[in-house]
Amino acid sequence: MSIAYREEHDMFRKSVRKFLQKEVVPYFKDWYKERQVPREIWMKFGSQGFLCPWLPEEYGGADLGFESSVIVSEELAKADADIAFSLHSDVVVPYIAAYGNEEQKQRWLPGCASGELLTAIAMTEPGTGSDLAGIETTAVKDGSDYIINGQKLFITNGWDCDLAIVVCKTGNSPKQHHNLSILVIEEGTSGFIKAKKMEKMGRHTEGTAELVFEDCRVPQSNRLGEEGKGFYYLMEKLQQERLVAALGALTAAEKMFEEGLEYAKTRKAFGQPIGKFQHNSFKLAEMATEIEIGRTFFQELVNEHIEGKDIVNKVSMAKWWISEMANRVAYDSLQLHGGYGYMEEYPISRQYQNVRVDTIFAGTTEIMKSIIAKNLGL
């Protein structure tokens, strides 16, 4: 079942595409080498209504629903521009929209939509990745504040963020799931340290950082929702986060397939295009089939998500299968390119590096399979 886009969505897509072709595509290679996207681009993207377009108009959005988020991700992939707009718009900001009180929404959401406030979400720690209940960063009450101490790793947008949504331990219940709370920490807060920008295999424009909190004093009014409910808020929002992750892997696979198909049609060896060799043509047929299966499944899930259905099990299936499929496409498409695929001047080289983490972040393949197994009664 295809996604039911409306006329305003079609207009939105054309606007996003035009913007990316004019303001991003000509400069992206330089940004990637410099490992930094100019803040000005975030501001321009926001001024056009492309950040958090699902937000109600009263908070600076265009009220275009999750469909608009899908459009932005698709157009970024087509433009071959891996910028963390979707993480900001569709993973982090929804926490404020869902669990923030009215004062918090009025204070932060308009800036998130305009690009004045960039966001990151800080869950992972040196000793805690998939096991969120084991988070050790503490937030201890002191008067009307919390005093935060701890360390977070692999935080996308962490280096550039103005708001960090930080998962902290605020209790000592034997039931670990009852101990977590979510705090919003603003840039410039004493004790909030962006320790270092982390060097990665790929995705060099995302400002992935190590964040440290040393007696970081944050007002209790910066807590999102109720104390001790953080784990449950995370579980509620992980459905959309993993759907967004699946979309990123799917659009990457589609782009890499296009690169491989075009190369196979134009590159000649032994007097004919390499795509004419049966092995290569079969590989391309396999890639096209798997991508079509992934796209069909994904579109079904988007429609169910928009309808408000609980699709945690299906999303877990989509997240692991599509991300693993994208890595297969990356391997085979680079192989088709031969030695040229290993050269960074060819997009497939960067795409190959970028897609590797898709089986890891937002829940590893193994964690997704564990969720599915549990829901099977195993």
UniProtKB/TrEMBL annotation:
Residue intervals of the Acyl-CoA dehydrogenase/oxidase N-terminal domain: 7-116
Any single Pfam family the record assigns to this protein: Acyl-CoA_dh_1
Keyword field contains Magnesium: no
Annotated Acyl-CoA oxidase/dehydrogenase middle domain residues: 120-216
GO molecular function, one term: acyl-CoA dehydrogenase activity
Domain Acyl-CoA dehydrogenase/oxidase C-terminal: 228-376
Cofactor dependence: FAD
Keywords: FAD, Flavoprotein, Oxidoreductase
Signal peptide range: none
PANTHER family from the UniProt entry: ACYL-COA DEHYDROGENASE, ISOVALERYL-COA DEHYDROGENASE, MITOCHONDRIAL-RELATED
Family to which the UniProt record says this protein belongs: Belongs to the acyl-CoA dehydrogenase family.
Protein name: Acyl-CoA dehydrogenase
Source organism per UniProt: Peribacillus cavernae
